[in-house]
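User:
Can I borrow your eye for a moment on a structure tokenisation matter? Would you put together a sequence-and-structure record for a protein of your own picking? Please set it down just below, with no commentary around it:
AI:
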Amino acid sequence: MNGLKACPECQVPDYITSEHLWLDNGDIVQKRNQAARLVFFESENIDPLFRNIQEIIGVPIEHMVINSVRRAVRIYVSLIVTEDTKEAIRRKEMDPIPIALEMMKISKIMGCGGEEFVDYRYERDDDDYYIVTQHEPFSVPLVAGTTAGAVEAILGGDRGVTCEQISPEVYKMTITPSPHPEELKQRMQMDIYRHRAGDIELDRCAVCGGPQALAGYRWYLDRGICLNRTTRRRMVMMSPQVLDVIFSELREELGDAVDEAVVEAQRRFTRSGFYSIDDVGSEADFRTMLALRGLGNLKEIKIRKKGLQMRLENAALPLMIVGMMQGAFDALLGLESTVEWELSDQNTLEIEVSHA
């Protein structure tokens, strides 16, 4: 697999730069399917975000997170694996494991952690199973949902997943037949990304053509981990739709207050010190940082003692960005703030943070 090779200049895996494009409006897309948007961001943010949301709303959400991801991944994998392949596997004319192993390689390159195939049974009855071991998963519920969704897409039928921690950072995940409520099958909607031109020009590696700033990250492909060389923060490349679908499903179950809960959860995590205003640096540096992560095209940011204003075109994960900026402002001044935001139909995010 070409992704296991790296550029001799910037040391970025070939798969990252050959299969993805960083466009002029602060987004990342798959080269072969430019309707599929991705983000490249700090994965250590994800599970604390879920825990904070759960604490704020007072309702367990892990099962909702897993089910949302499972359904989203089932849709995605169903589109990229041909019907002929799926039919051949279901007729037991083709072994599904080579496909699974290839997906595991890609998952490692994307920073999702290490995954090892253990065993499977496929007789199309209730005793079927598919078992993997996950090493250092970037997010336990997201990896669990992803694994179950991929199995559903390829083998067909509804599946459930159980997670057993067998040692620190190692989990055994078992996928078995399990029916899902009919209303869940009807509700899932996936928005299609549509490109809008921007004005961002990232410096490029002279050898592979990927963003030059990616040289600031190191991939440990044997572990499925990518780290920022300076901050040592762990990174992951994934679809923002995965998190958007989770927030949408939580909203369906729990109401519109979920949006405020997501913002507040992200604010609490950011204020704990993971992110800071120092990460912003100059406006130009922050613009590059957001574009490298596929989060959008920064058009304006103003930070003063009395407040913060920001306008971001083509915003991805807007609720998380709102909470991040509010939390970073609170940490800077040691004060509580209020925040207002608006997301336009064109996906332009405007944020205003001010003293409470």
